[in-house]
Request: fold
Amino acid sequence: MSMATLTIDELKSQARRLREAMASGGTAVTHGTALELVAKSHGVRDWNTLSALAARRDNAEVDPVAVGAVVSGEYLGQRFRGRVLALSRLSQSSYYTITLHFDEPVDVVTFDSFSAFRQRVTATIDGKGISPRHTSDGRSHLVLDL
Reply:
């Protein structure tokens, strides 16, 4: 398995196996030393560099939700439950465009004398399912319960 496909957990497992193998051969090493040796075996300077590369790959490869998934959360401060109709990663970005269809329409207006219901919405979210855009009171437009 190449470093390009290894996760942080797999790299830590390599370090554990290396430590065990060295100990069985009579050479005791600390876990930290084993992590540094694993990093060098993958051609990088140190464990911090290797783990940062693996974390970036881990986060970049996993979409926050799948198309067709049933999700819940808040849209403009109102609770919802709905289905993901579309999800696409914005090019060269860590953000996604998501289209949701709510089970029940959500009133997106907070005034008592006026209502505006939405049942299908499109928004931008990050990898944690949170919109970078905020309302005037500082709440994210969309927050998925992930």
Notes: The CA atoms of residues 46 and 87 lie 36 Å apart. The two ends are 30 Å apart (CA to CA). DSSP finds three helices and five strands in the chain. The chain has a mean pLDDT of 86.
